[in-house]
């Protein structure tokens, strides 16, 4: 029996969850996909959810690039601490209000592909070993990738299921 390592599982789950997310959106008639739902929550439509994912991919790519260059990336973003994550997420939401859903899908597909390629560059040991890279501090690279792909996609799937049922 062939066993999969954590890297293979991460890649498989990320792609599986990403594709499920897109399937949920595609299950809604195209004329309704841009509709917003009446909610007190930040994300009111598919575009909001997708651009949230996209921007977190972009932050991950920046952290990765800066960290691998030997710098200490500002996390989560310049001017924001983890304790102010809601403010950062609101800024992300505001930034993309004029973008179409089709543009959001294209941007997210490209960023997903880029992040998958970054994961593929590493061995399972490099991904799983805590402190392997100085910039990940006490964590491992895997946790950064999982949080911004497979795990984040699960959050997005739940959000999009609610939106799909409401429109």
UniProtKB/TrEMBL annotation:
- InterPro entries in alphabetical order: DinB/YfiT-like (IPR034660), DUF1706 (IPR012550)
Q: What is this protein called?
A: ClbS/DfsB family four-helix bundle protein
Superkingdom is: Bacteria
């Amino acid at each position: 029996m062939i066993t999969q390592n954590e890297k293979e599982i991460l890649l498989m789950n990320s792609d599986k969850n990403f594709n499920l997310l897109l399937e949920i959106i595609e299950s809604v008639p195209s004329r309704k996909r841009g509709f917003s739902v009446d909610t007190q929550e930040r994300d009111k439509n598919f575009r909001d959810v997708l651009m949230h994912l996209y921007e977190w991919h972009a932050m991950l790519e920046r952290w990765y690039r800066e960290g691998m260059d030997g710098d200490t990336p500002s996390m989560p973003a310049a001017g924001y601490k983890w304790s102010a994550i809601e403010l950062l997420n609101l800024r992300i939401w505001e930034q993309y209000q004029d973008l179409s859903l089709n543009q959001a899908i294209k941007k997210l597909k490209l960023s997903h592909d880029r992040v998958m390629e970054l994961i593929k560059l590493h061995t399972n040991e490099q991904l799983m070993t805590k402190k392997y890279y100085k910039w990940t501090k006490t964590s491992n690279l895997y946790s950064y990738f999982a949080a911004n792909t497979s795990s984040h996609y699960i959050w997005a799937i739940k959000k999009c299921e609610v939106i799909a049922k409401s429109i």
